[in-house]
Structures
1.
Amino acid sequence: MKKKSHPLKLNALRILLFFSFTFIVISSLGCAKHPKGKEKPAPEEETLESSPLPSRGEFNPDFDVDYSPLKEEIIYFAFDSAAIPGSERGKIEKIADWMNQHPQTSILLAGHCDERGTEEYNRGLGERRAIAVREYLVGLGISPEKIHTISYGKDRPIAIGHTEADYARNRRVETGVIRK
């Protein structure tokens, strides 16, 4: 005589098998790794070749630099860019003219950023902006030995607000005359 299985036990076994199979499938999908070489490549960082930088010398950028002689020639930049806008090139040409009239003088180009971005990124961006202005001046015939650069990143804003107009005023390179 054949023993018949209970219908509730058979259904419980089917449900258990169904959930076990579902668990295995979901677990294998959840642990999938990104195949190597299929990841989105990081954007290439903007590079700028520069003339050899002069030694820092014996000046203190906080005490030995006077920004008043060239305070009207602040060069402004677009968001997240170190490219010199065409509208700002005339200011750099005025700086070159001033330097030609004062051939014994050295300058400090101070790069700044708005508050968006990390500290490290903004330091790099401020330096790229200062170097871009430096290279433009070198292209105009100014000796690279007379041009120093520094980046303050987002540490020294001239506009404290959080509007786009405030951010635009903080994306700049200022030119200071080294008085030492």
2.
Amino acid sequence: MAANMAFGAEWLLAAFAGVGLGCVFFGGLWLTIRQLPNWRYPGLYMLASLFLRLALVGAGLYLMADGHWQRYAAAVPGLLAARWWWVRRIEPRQVES
């Protein structure tokens, strides 16, 4: 019983870590897009941002999983939940008249 609870807690922590990493990735994307008009070379800025965000999320997943594929599997729904939240957050709202 205690082993099952520890396993569940491990999955839950991995899912929350996935949410955090997803917020880093998609929040970084949002900030990058907002800053694009201010940059002389927006394509280069987008590419640098992509590599930085991928490196951060990849390193975070690697450190969090510690070789356990189950932790990766638990983190993916957290990443997707963060994506869903960011899309909802920045979605244009309809103005009621």
3.
Amino acid sequence: MKRIVAVLGGGSFGTAIANILCHNGHQVKLWLRDHQLADHINHQHVNNRYFPDYPLHPALIATTDPVQAVADAELVFIATPSKAFRATIHPLQQQLAGKCIVSTTKGIEADSFMLMSQILQQEIPTAKVGVLSGPNLAKEIMAKGLTATVIASADNELRQLVQSVLHCDYFRVYGNDDMFGVELGGALKNIYAIVAGMAEAMGMGANTKSMLITRALAEMSRFAVNMGANPMTFIGLAGVGDLIVTCMSPLSRNFQVGMALGQGKSLEDAEAALGQIAEGVNTLQLVKDQADQIGVYMPLVSGLYEVVVMKQPVEKVVRSLMLGEQKTDVDFSVTELLARQ
């Protein structure tokens, strides 16, 4: 069944999602701010800023008018940076009322510590809200590499709708009703990708990388469960799956920032070279403050905070991490997990 869909945000992931939707036969409008880029997409069928080597489906329509983009859409994906999220949807409250809206943004609002789904529920209370998250590097999706993601929502009809419009022979969509856990996992893993990038730049071995990823999973799930998430979510695609890909792939924006920091570059130079938003940098200080406030032990977050915000030498922080308190390996027992179901 052909659907009318809008994608707000013409960055790498928004473009990749819009392209899948078009190839699946749906009518898609992609909103972006850049008039020149919109014209290029409409006439040359290429997003030359993010994917100059990958042609887009010729039916994809780019527009710089957000009202026109969402006017007839029954399903709207939002793929803007977290800093621009509320400002993007606020003027569209009337047009988005009652629609199915899915956030693909993996970040946290600075002043409120709200996730994007919570902003959606506040700004557009009549909308059906979901989040899409998982190990999804946009460039691999454009190359049609086999990929899986998670649609999380309390609304079963929305989950089924998203699964039906995105599923194809290289893209699978799994459902989850723990929207908070899926979304928080997507935001938290960006912090650890920066740590992993630093480790890579410093030439650390496989033992170290394995330790970092495993302890990152323990740390992020400990924080998320304290905030109300289901710990089982973190053993799925939106938890450990997303953590692995973002901590292992040089395509990850946050990993690239970590690499630059590990090579001795400043944060400003690292972000300038990236040319895109690395959400982990913004998320780091917010999570550090929140963890301190609720008393959750997060040594990797604290260590990265010392490097990025307090400008401490990386080597000194790494040594202090190894001398820190030794906790138990696994935080949750099977009995405890079952009790939470």
